[in-house]
């Protein structure tokens, strides 16, 4: 199936970026800025930190375009690069070993993950309240869809630590939402 005119244009922009064309890089950056920021906001504690993550991510995009396979969707590759940039950023600046624990919290009777009942801003505010280590595991598992084994490999932690951090993040989110008066009684377990 032939590429659409928009896909062809983006392919030309990406090829120009590979040659170091600053105008093409600016165009690509502007085109994917909102998408990239939406990813970075899930990992950063605030907008400023998210912008730092986004800047590092786009630096990696522009310096790593030779690794992009044009036969695959660019947006998927960009997402992976931005997630890895967020992980690298948090490892470098935010990871606190005492937050990485394999102790599982007690089971909760409230069921969680009914995020579709909330507005995006509510979810983002709640997730931003988590510690960096919990937020990272929560995002990778609940939002990005990674398995605990994959998360453990990416973060150089055990699978049990990944599960524990996710469980603790869920409990903290439940408490945060409860404190905000958001009813969770009709939510389901993932």
Automatic annotation (TrEMBL):
KW Secreted (keyword) present: no
Keywords, sorted A to Z: Sigma factor, Transcription, Transcription regulation
Domain RNA polymerase sigma factor 70 region 4 type intervals: 122-173
Classification via Pfam families: Sigma70_r2, Sigma70_r4_2
InterPro entries (alphabetical): RNA_pol_sigma-70-like, RNA_pol_sigma-70_dom, RNA_pol_sigma70_r2, RNA_pol_sigma70_r4_t2, RNA_pol_sigma_r2, RNA_pol_sigma_r3/r4-like, WH-like_DNA-bd_sf
Sequence ranges assigned to domain RNA polymerase sigma-70 region in this UniProt record: 28-96
Keyword Transcription set for record: yes
GO biological process: DNA-templated transcription initiation
Alphabetized SUPFAM superfamilies for the sequence: Sigma2 domain of RNA polymerase sigma factors, Sigma3 and sigma4 domains of RNA polymerase sigma factors
Transmembrane segments: none
Family membership noted in the UniProt record: Belongs to the sigma-70 factor family. ECF subfamily.
Protein name: Sigma-70 family RNA polymerase sigma factor
Organism of provenance: Neolewinella lacunae
